[in-house]
Amino acid sequence: MPNILIADDEKEIVKLLKIYLETDGVTVFEANDGAKALDILEKKDIDLALVDIMMPKIDGYQVIKKIRQQERYIPVMVISAKITLSDRVLGIDLGADDYITKPFEPLEVAAKVRAQLRRLNVTSPQAHTKSIITVGDMSLDLDKCIFIHGGESCELTKAEFKVLELLMSQPKRVFTKEQIYESAWYDDGAVDDNTIRVIISRLRDKVGAEHIKTIRGLGYRFEA
């Protein structure tokens, strides 16, 4: 039975989400501030965390950073009233797997949680059979999230890593924005074009603009 942490200073939201999530047979741990959330993470074997950004004592950004410092991978879904593109990009850059804005539909959140848990079983570190993707003289270390080109290494954020992993997995194949969004953020909903453009721009700065081609009206492809 999966253990899920809900960290939000709005008690009504925690109770509402708990009702919907427990119908799927999960165990829910509640926290109304960041300090309590970190205490639960330290003492309990949490499989997924729903984290609000604006919490007392310790904010959600710091909670996410602490989660990403742990050896075991834990999916993180941000639930926040902060809706600007910069807020979403910051949350994803810190390691969030999804970003849900308030107000939200509880049934949709529950569905996204189920999808994250399914993918966790498939994409856990123990499931990796190939730890490095190589294209020409470039390689992507799946364990360290590092891009290597000509002996020089470059660290990537989680979103950058997921997008680059998809592109490098099948060089010269064109991936649509929908496929890229689903790969990086596990969301089958509307595609945020601005978010994708920001990530692609950052990747081009890191790996070389000539390696990520824009195919107008279709999407992007990776070239050696």
What does it look like?
- The protein has about 220 residues and is α/β, with parallel strands linked by helices.
- About 40% of the residues lie in helices and about 20% in strands.
- A five-stranded parallel beta sheet has the order 2-1-3-4-5, sandwiched between helices.
- Strand 11 (about 210-215) and strand 12 (about 220) form a beta hairpin.
- About 30% of the residues are buried.
- Mean pLDDT is about 85; it is low at about 120-130.
Please name the defining characteristics of this protein:
224 residues, alpha/beta, Rossmann fold, Arc Repressor Mutant, subunit A, 2 domains, five-stranded parallel β-sheet, four-stranded antiparallel β-sheet, 8 helices, 42% helix
Task: Write the SSE topology.
Blueprint: E1 3-7, H1 11-22, E2 27-31, H2 34-43, E3 48-51, H3 60-68, E4 76-80, H4 85-93, E5 98-101, H5 106-123, E6 132-135, E7 138-141, E8 146-149, E9 152-155, H6 158-169, E10 175-176, H7 177-185, H8 193-207, E11 212-215, E12 219-222
Parallel strand pairs: 1-2, 1-3, 3-4, 4-5
Antiparallel strand pairs: 6-7, 7-8, 8-9, 10-12, 11-12
Kindly report the average pLDDT value: 85
Q: Can you tell me the overall shape?
A: elongated
- What does the radius of gyration come to? 18 Å
User: Would you tell me which CATH topology of the largest domain applies?
Assistant: Rossmann fold
Number of domains: 2
Strand order of the largest sheet: 2-1-3-4-5
CATH architecture of the largest domain: 3-Layer(aba) Sandwich
Oligomer type: single chain
Summarize the biggest pleated sheet: 5 strands, parallel
Please, what is the CATH homologous superfamily of the largest domain?
Response regulator
Query: What's the number of helices?
Result: 8
Beta-strand residue percentage: 15-25%
